[in-house]
Write a structure and sequence with these properties.
The structure is a homodimer.
Chain A: H1 10-33, H2 40-46, H3 61-82, H4 89-106, H5 108-115, H6 128-146, H7 158-166, H8 179-200, H9 211-222
The first copy, chain A, binds a DNA duplex through helix 1 and helix 2.
DNA sequence: TGTACATCAGTGAACGCGCGTTCACTGATGTAC
DNA sequence: TGTACATCAGTGAACGCGCGTTCACTGATGTAC
């Protein structure tokens, strides 16, 4: 980060620099073997330091992982908010879909750290939930814009939309959102995660399919039905 | 397994029994902490054996994991084939969807062993691909039955269906399948995996949603569009 | 500007742990005559 | 039915490894007078 607090002492600046480098190496390690293989000693060695040196910067392994997860959530929320190109609803949703895939492909293991199998023996920190609802809020904005009116209905998913009218606490910041919009947000999330996570896990390799086209097809399906 | 080969010697029968018990304990361990935490020594201790004793039954840790993965694939393929309740296409697809969720909920970590983040440093064995296409074949059968004719089209997913007509090697056993049927199979897979994996990873907890309803809504969306 | 002191980054040794895996060996089970 | 031998399950010690984490300590950097 080039921007530095003006009241920061040189020592503190150095601290932040080293912390950042530790995290950077941690991400490299995660990119290679996943989060469960993350090792403080290995990071230290990679930085030319002794193992115990890192305990000046992080209380323990869990604190480091917690920070990495929070940074990942933060990064995704920022990417989402940055794609706030307003415009017609459907186009905006497609924009979010594109941003999501780009963010995931940039670092697949980071994506799985957020949405994948939970790291064994690790409990997610509290404050990621705040960022989660930030992400959901950006998504809901686009979904509200993409569902202009209680459109013509095929009646199939009725049961679920009734359920949504009764269970909308997770969309507390959007009292204006129709059940259709809520359902759209959930479909966006689950469908794109489905296509994306199977692609990242390599389940399409050998099938000769273009994952990008499959992904786009699923994304467009959201505003077509 | 109660069924035993009649030509089997008692010693061989005992071997198979112990192998089965090792796998059983392995699954219990995986159910607790995921596959990357699987430990031969821990299994041995749990069975009242010494660590090295297991090397009579499995060449090494990788061979054990390979067998577990293959058994998981086998189990899913059998569950799918068992749901071959013929009948109208859409109902058959819904049946498969139900079976998939039940199978996943019975052992979430087993599901992730098949469709989740790949185990770090582990390469999937060759012969699972055969079972994979078995599963895909059952699914394609239902999809062909569910897409009677090149129905009225909204034209949105056109690009992808053109792509599918050119890239259908993965459906080699189903030359009769229309691009719509192929796309339906892929949507079945990705959408249901999306809803299911987010549920299993606990991403809906705290939202007050009923994952079963969400899942059913996604399943019915397949044959509604 | 120089000296005295406090702060703090980093080291090296050590602890205890669990892992996968090998090896020589014991003892029980099955087989052949 | 009994004896001689081969097969094989399981043991215990050992090797080498890497992990997270603690602790007492050195040496450099910053601060106060």
């Amino acid at each position: 980060m080039p921007t530095t607090d003006s009241t920061t002492t040189p020592r503190e600046r150095y601290r932040q620099q080293v912390r950042a480098e530790v995290k950077e190496k941690a991400w490299q390690q995660i990119a290679g073997s996943g989060a469960s293989a993350l090792s403080l000693n290995a990071i230290a060695k990679q930085m030319g330091l002794s193992g115990p040196a890192l305990y000046r910067y992080f209380a323990n392994r869990d604190e480091l992982i917690t920070e990495l997860i929070r940074d990942a959530y933060r990064s995704l929320a920022d990417a989402f908010a940055g794609a706030a190109d307003p415009g017609p609803g459907p186009a905006r949703l497609l924009g979010l879909a594109r941003v999501l895939r780009a963010w995931a492909l940039a670092d697949p293991h980071r994506y799985f750290l957020v949405y994948g199998t939970p790291v064994p023996g690790y409990e997610a920190p509290q404050d990621t939930t705040a960022i989660t609802s930030e992400i959901m809020s950006t998504l809901l904005d686009a979904c509200v814009a993409a569902t202009p009116r209680p459109a013509a209905h095929d009646g199939r998913a009725r049961a679920f939309e009734e359920h949504l009218t009764d269970h909308r606490d997770w969309a507390a910041g959007h009292p204006d959102a129709s059940p259709e919009a809520l359902g759209l947000a959930l479909s966006f999330w689950t469908r794109l995660h489905g296509a994306l996570s199977l692609e990242l896990a390599g389940h399409f390799t050998g099938m000769g399919l273009d994952p990008a086209l499959l992904y786009t097809a699923e994304a467009t399906s959201l505003t077509a039905g």
